[in-house]
Amino acid sequence: SSGINAEYGGAWHMELLELSWVQRNFISLYCTFPKCSYEEALDLFLKAEDLSPGGSVRNLYLAGKACFRLGRKSEARQYLEQAVNCPVNTKEDQMVLEEAKRFYNSNF
């Protein structure tokens, strides 16, 4: 669905943004490093949320993390609280839930 596609697009941005300086420079030796931003990632997470409200612990967690990186801490807290209260349906959901809890507990 479009919501999942938006979530994966946002996650791709987040993965690239979280790479270390060394990793980015290594990639740049072989290709042009893609342009991405936390704003673009957040826009994609919000699009996914509009299409499937509360449907993904991963999407809510990453939306909260993007807000946090943008300095929008009250919004980050809201998304992270929704994430840690989201139903868990798979092992992947459980792993993301634990990661969201660690991120929340270490930052709020």
What distance lies between the first and last C-alpha atoms, to the nearest angstrom?
33 Å
As a whole number of angstroms, the C-alpha radius of gyration is 14 Å
User: What is the typical, i.e. mean, pLDDT?
Assistant: 93
Biggest sheet character: none
Q: Spell the H/E element sequence.
A: HHHHHH
- Structural class per helix/strand content? mainly alpha
SS element count, helices: 6
Total strands: the figure is 0
Helix content: over 70%
Give the low-pLDDT segments.
Answer: none
Plain-language structure description:
The structure is a single chain. The protein is mainly alpha-helical. The chain is built from six helices and no strands. It has helices at residues 2-17, 21-30, 38-51, 57-69, 73-84, 91-107. The mean pLDDT is 93.
Summarize the structure.
The chain is mainly alpha-helical.
Characteristic key phrases:
single chain; 108 residues; mainly alpha; 76% helix
